Structure formats: C-alpha cells, structure tokens
Amino acid sequence: MSAWVDFFSTVLRLSIPIVFAALGGVLSERAGVFNVSLEGCILGGAFGAATGAYLTGTPVGGLLVGLLAAAAIGCILAGLAVSLGINQLVTGIAINILVLGLTSYLARLILGADATSTLPGFSPMAIPVLSSIPVIGPVLFNQDPLAYLMYLAVPLSFWFLYRTPWGLIVRAIGDYPIAADTVGVSVPAVRALCVIASCMLGGLGGCYLVLCQVFVFTENMSAGKGWIALAAVILGRWNPALVFAACIFFAFSEALQLRLQFNNPDVPYQLFSMVPFLASFVALVVFAGRVRPPGAIGIKYVRGGK
C-alpha cells in the first residue's frame, strides 16, 4: 500500500507544474494566441522564484518575484505577437531560447557560489481529517500550498471560460474576433491580458519546481515540461477539465519512467527518459486529428479585416 501511495504522490507532484502551464496555454490559445513560450515561462518563473527566495529569505518573496519574472516574459510575448503581429511560433521559440541563455547567465551572476545551496521553500500542510483517509488522504491532502492552489485553479479556469461573460469574450476573440470587435471589445487588449496571465500561470509552475520540489535552481530545469503542457492543451481540446486529465496522463508516464529507472539500474536511463515524450507523441497521433482548435488561433487581428 505504501508503494502505491508513494507512486501516486509522485504522479501528483510531477503533474503540478505541467497543469499550471497547460492552464496558461488554454487561456492564451482560447484568446487566439499560440503560446509556445510556456517552456520559457516555467524556466523564467523558476529562476525568479530562486532569486526572490535567495534575496528575501522567504518562499513568499520567491513566489512574488517568480510571478513578476513570468509576467515580464508575457509582456514581451504580447508586445511582439499581439501588438507587432510577429509570427507567434517564431516569437515563442525565440523567447524560450532567450530565457534559457539569460537565466543561465544571471543564475551564475546573482547566485554564484550559493547556486547549489538549499533555498527557502513551502512545507507540506496536512488537512485535518481529510489527510487521514487511506491512500487518498496522504496523496491529495498532505501537500504544499501550491498543490492546493492547483486544485482550485482547474475548476476556476473551467468556470471562468464557460460560466462567465469574460470567458465568453475570450472564447469569442479566439474563434471569431470580428464579432467581439463589433460589440466594442478591444481584441488586442484582451489578447495581451490573456497572454500575460498565461505566462504567469506557466511561471507558477516554475515557482513550484523551486519552492516546493527541489529547493534549488539549475540550468534548463524546466526540462521540456512546457512542451508537454502544450501537448496536453491540444490533447485536452482546450478544455481545462480535459487538459487536467491529459496532464495527469503525462505525469503518470513520467512517474512510470522514474520507477522503471529505479527497478532497472543496469538499463541506460536515457531509454526510460523517452517515455513521457513518447507518450505525448503517441497520444497526439491518436487523438489530435479529432480536435478543432480555436478558429482564429495564430492569426493577427486587424480591425476591419479578419
């Protein structure tokens, strides 16, 4: 029983940064902007969290700086992709490369010899009564604050997109922006706000890595999680509930490869490291042809045009 609790706890912990980033991807892409920079947002948020925690000595300081770093990335993406209309795929990839190089340099500059020191972080908070439920309790209700925030983020994202007027506006802009413009909605402004919020959600995933999981910053620690989040967005059909299920599937495959590595030490670990990405590839090949993306995704809106 203990082995199963440990395994599913690992699945949950691995899913959290992917879920945050994927929810950010849903928000941005529902508004018509393809956010390929989620990988950079996770890495930028992680670096900001490490820097903030190092300078302030508190995890809350790290969380705030991490969110600000991700918001700055969002402003750059919004300025280039929304305001200037530069190709969204090219912009996102360029931001990923920029963030990778910049965080590696600044980490050495700011953290220096302390780069490998343990940073302040959030501790698990057991919820009374609920944490005592067999199997489910230790897995779901003995987690850190950001895990509980993730529990709220998924239903809140669904409620926002499908049960509020603002969510209707976002979806209208992503599918048929001219209709939203006709009723007086500023399409570029809403898209820019969604992009910034999207990047902050991705940055929250990076904050989780540093403040709740490893308590240290390492170069390229996002390790492809942003790309897996993009796959989860497509597989989940831009629906927060389905996207969450896709994230759990990918986290399960990652936890499985860790267990396989542990149980088969004689096999090169690189072979098992392919499992999450192979799962992403297979899932997209099987299911991606059946999904319909937002109608105006990736297309710059010009008033009076498309």
UniProtKB/TrEMBL annotation:
The keyword Cell membrane applies. GO terms for molecular function: transmembrane transporter activity. Keywords: Cell membrane, Membrane, Transmembrane, Transmembrane helix. It is a multi-pass membrane protein. One of its GO terms (cellular component) is plasma membrane. The keyword Repressor does not apply. The chain crosses the membrane at residues 6-26, 33-55, 61-82, 89-110, 122-141, 148-169, 189-216, 228-251, 271-291. Coiled coil: none annotated. It holds the Pfam family BPD_transp_2. It is found in: Cell membrane. It comes from the Bacteria. This is ABC transporter permease. It comes from Shinella kummerowiae.
